[in-house]
Design brief:
about 650 residues; 2 domains; binds (2R)-2,3-dihydroxypropyl phosphate; binds manganese (II) ion
């Protein structure tokens, strides 16, 4: 009788080798930050999961030779994917995305330096593929297995189980990882390089197909809508008051309107901002709303730069980072402005590096431009005070006039602070988040005050206008109990929830002398036309949805991304219409059927605006999903012909 030979399926060997190799690459060749044990565990597990997923597919080949061939070539191909990402990473500290792969400039950058990016020991990245190759050729009788139904079912269910387990852990570690699409590093860290590539492929093809079917036919209708409903033809009194000045825009992380002028434990929360409210050179907008979606800071940036709405799902910075835009940096470039963003975080966070290229930004001073040590950082990274201090040298060296954006970081959830930086005591409620929010906001307030001083000392203050805007809420509805206690309310109603979306906006114009508090309803969508008007720049052939904040005859409503809206009279949320001043519900009135026309059902004064809001959000989405700006020549005075 022939002795039965022990067999070890090659796909298992390949999965183990490939998983181990990928883990070593993750751990020692990519610079992936790990914050806790759980993340370490996920990072260890995911390469094996992906490898198993890929190689286990081989069981479906009945012929041993096909099985072996599949394993050989996939091992080689996937080793090459790891290698390509590693080379790309050495240059860009980022992972390859499909749009990037096809984006000329990036690859040309890489092309010239590719040889310096490849190290001799990289050959080891192919060691597992070589072993698989050898075994499949020379030891086929040992490693090939004729799989029966049971073996196939095992491979398939094991793959799916492992994948589900991995995704479950990832979702626990980083909720909404997929819908919010934070950062490529997060994705790779949590689901692995290969699943990340699959994810990128899906996102990309979805966006691409909508893009492919668009042909620009939609543009004239959108332009007509904007001309009739959005654009204001008369210039505001403020047109050109800051002509030729530098613009310094501060994106104040998570600062909400309710802290301004308010106290905690008997102390002012924002003494500096409170002073600004009273300052004669400052306009303070106290009825100004954030309009972001899942893309948080990046959505607020998107609103400001483009005066388009972000998307209802995902972060537009991520999903449509390589579209054509007609953003502030591009328009300002025509007026010889130099544009830059200064933000001490990883440049690929929110795909900023990709999106900033599409927005025509001249320069992005990211994490690498800052000296970051354990002492000067907390929570998300560099503390705001050293951040502003270290930024001044870049401003001083910058070509003027400039348009710069500063994005602060310390006042970010979970509002962690070193003891020595706390100037006020936390609040005392059942929510640590809300409690710690106050000292963190105070720190940001102090940092901005210091920044004003630095600007004065550097001689940059007089020639600049400074805009401070809260990017989005910091305290979510999860903390409503504590919030209602702080605001001394019985409960937070849906009406209150929308009111809490107010963020502060300051427009500070040194030497202006006519500042005041303005309470007309306004939002982040209004910044682009406002900045252009202040600088005296006309953009009549543009497509955007906001209004100059200083103009008369504004649209009169602010649309939120979920379709809610606020006007000077009404507030609409969860399908209800409220009186904006009193917060009282406005009951729907049954309309009588008139002759020839049937009754339209119950209606409220909100309905008419709701239609406009929906139309407008829809147009903005069409522009983004269809990448429609590639069909518009913004330099021409003439509209696209119908
Ligand atoms: C990170 C910063 C904060 O770079 O923008 O991100 P957020 O979570 O607020 O969008
Ligand atoms: Mn933010």
């Amino acid at each position: 009788m022939r002795k039965k030979q022990a067999r070890l399926p090659l796909y298992i060997i390949a999965s183990l080798l490939f998983g181990l190799k990928t883990y070593i690459v993750y751990r020692f060749m990519f610079n992936i930050e790990l914050e806790n044990r759980m993340q370490e565990f996920i990072l260890f597990v995911n390469p094996f999961v992906s490898a198993f997923l890929i190689f286990a597919l081989s069981v479906w080949f009945n012929k041993a030779s096909r099985q072996m061939k599949y394993l050989r070539y996939t091992a080689l191909l996937f080793s090459f994917v790891v290698f390509a990402n590693l080379v790309f990473y050495r240059q860009f500290t980022d992972f390859i995305t499909l749009p990037q792969l096809f984006m000329g400039s990036n690859m040309t950058d890489l092309g010239s330096s590719i040889l310096t990016l490849i190290k001799p020991y990289d050959i080891l990245l192919f060691a597992d593929a070589a072993i698989v190759w050898y075994l499949s050729k020379k030891k086929e009788s040992i490693v090939s297995v004729q799989y029966l139904k049971r073996g196939k079912a095992f491979a398939l269910s094991m793959s799916l189980l492992l994948l589900a387990g991995n995704f479950f852990l990832a979702e626990m570690e980083r909720p909404q990882l997929f819908t919010r699409a934070f950062d490529r590093e997060y994705l790779v860290k949590n689901i692995g390089l290969f699943n990340y590539h699959v994810y990128d492929l899906v996102v990309h093809s979805k966006a691409e197909s909508q893009r492919v079917f668009a042909d620009g036919n939609e543009i004239p209708e959108i332009q007509d809508y904007i001309k009739e409903n959005v654009m204001i033809t008369e210039k505001s009194d403020m047109f050109g008051v800051a002509e030729g000045k530098n613009v310094i825009f501060i994106n104040a992380e998570s600062i909400q309107g309710f802290v301004v002028g308010n106290e905690v434990n008997g102390e002012e929360v924002t003494p500096f901002l409170n002073k600004l409210v009273e300052d004669e050179d400052t306009y303070y907008f106290d009825n100004f709303f954030e309009q972001t979606g899942q893309g948080n800071t990046s959505d607020s940036e998107f609103l400001v730069e483009n005066s388009l709405y972000p998307l209802s799902r995902g972060a537009v910075f991520f999903t449509h980072g390589s579209n054509e835009y007609h953003a502030l940096p591009e328009i300002l470039e025509e007026e010889d402005y130099f544009s830059a963003v200064l933000h001490a975080n990883n440049k690929s966070f929110w795909n900023r590096d990709g999106m900033y290229r599409s927005l025509n930004l001249d320069y992005f001073y990211s994490e690498d431009a800052y000296e970051i040590t354990d002492e000067n950082s907390v929570g998300w990274g560099l503390k705001d005070k050293p951040y502003f201090e270290q930024s001044i040298k870049y401003l001083q060296a910058m070509e003027q006039p400039f348009y710069t954006k500063f994005i602060t970081l310390t006042n970010h959830f979970p509002f962690e602070m070193d003891e020595e930086d706390k100037s006020i005591e936390p609040y005392d409620s059942n929510s640590n988040t809300l409690n710690n929010y106050f000292p963190a906001v105070r720190y940001a307030d102090e940092a901005m005050e210091e920044f004003f001083d630095h600007l004065k000392q550097a001689g940059l203050y007089e020639d600049s206008i400074i805009i401070i805007m809260g990017d989005h809420i910091g305290i979510s509805a999860n903390h409503n109990r504590a919030m209602s206690m702080y605001l001394d309310k019985e409960e937070i109603t849906p009406y209150d929830q929308v009111q809490l979306l107010k963020v502060p906006l300051f427009v500070h114009i040194p030497g202006h002398g006519e500042g005041e508090t303005i309470s007309t309803v306004s939002g982040q969508i209004d910044l682009k036309p406002t900045i252009l008007s202040l600088l005296g720049i006309e953009h009549t052939n543009d497509i955007y949805f906001g209004n100059d904040l200083f103009a008369e005859n504004r649209k009169g409503y602010i649309a939120l991304r979920n379709g809610d809206f606020i006007t000077d009279d009404y507030l609409s949320t969860v399908g209800m219409c409220y009186d904006v001043d009193t917060g009282e519900l406005i009951d729907a009135e049954e309309e009588e059927a008139t002759e020839g026309e049937p009754a339209t059902g119950a209606s409220t004064p909100c309905d008419e605006i709701k239609e406009k809001v929906e139309l407008e959000l829809g147009y903005s989405d069409d522009i983004i999903y269809g990448d429609l700006f590639r069909f518009v020549d913004f330099t021409e005075e003439k509209q696209v012909e119908k």
